[in-house]
Amino acid sequence: MSSSSMLSSSSSSVVQYSDIQKHGGNKEFSCPSGFKFSPNDRQLVTHYLKNKIMDVSEPANLIKEFEFQNINPDQIPMDKVRYGKKNEVFYFTSKEWRGSKTSDGHWEATGEDEKILDGDEVVGFKKVFIFLWRKELIETKSQWVMQEYRINPSICSGSVNGDDDKDMIAKVVYHEFLF
């Protein structure tokens, strides 16, 4: 699969990134039955996040905007995505969600930032979080995992919105059988 391929099916048919752009900016994009939106880490950063920061329009229904402040993971609209995998959703969001707590728990980082590479160049960073439910003073791991994707500001110098470090992509996954 070429690096410009964003949507694919199990057959050899591939919708190219250029085909998506032909459908125009924020218009809805429609894929044939069986196609799934399944970009890798590098594609999320170098295509979708960079384009958002640089104000390049994308099909509106591939990655929507959502703010996670004070939201329990079971309140995240998982059913609003038409082309992803089951129990997996991608949203553009901002760093303001970090550190926000809900009445029922909070997201906790599980480790260090992972570098996202394009060849030898660091194009972004990924951090993994798990939601911890809190009842009274007891915290319990949930089946909700969030992967946060941030861009390396050096690849977006001269961005349109001037705030390369604000926007990010959150990939939220509900693991039915995690524990």
TrEMBL record:
<keyword id="KW-0238">DNA-binding</keyword>
<keyword id="KW-0539">Nucleus</keyword>
<keyword id="KW-0804">Transcription</keyword>
<dbReference type="InterPro" id="IPR003441">
    <property type="entry name" value="NAC-dom"/>
</dbReference>
<dbReference type="GO" id="GO:0003677">
    <property type="term" value="F:DNA binding"/>
</dbReference>
<dbReference type="GO" id="GO:0006355">
    <property type="term" value="P:regulation of DNA-templated transcription"/>
</dbReference>
<protein>
    <submittedName>
        <fullName>NAC domain</fullName>
    </submittedName>
</protein>
<keyword id="KW-0805">Transcription regulation</keyword>
<dbReference type="InterPro" id="IPR036093">
    <property type="entry name" value="NAC_dom_sf"/>
</dbReference>
<feature type="domain" description="NAC">
    <location>
        <begin position="31"/>
        <end position="175"/>
    </location>
</feature>
<dbReference type="Pfam" id="PF02365">
    <property type="entry name" value="NAM"/>
</dbReference>
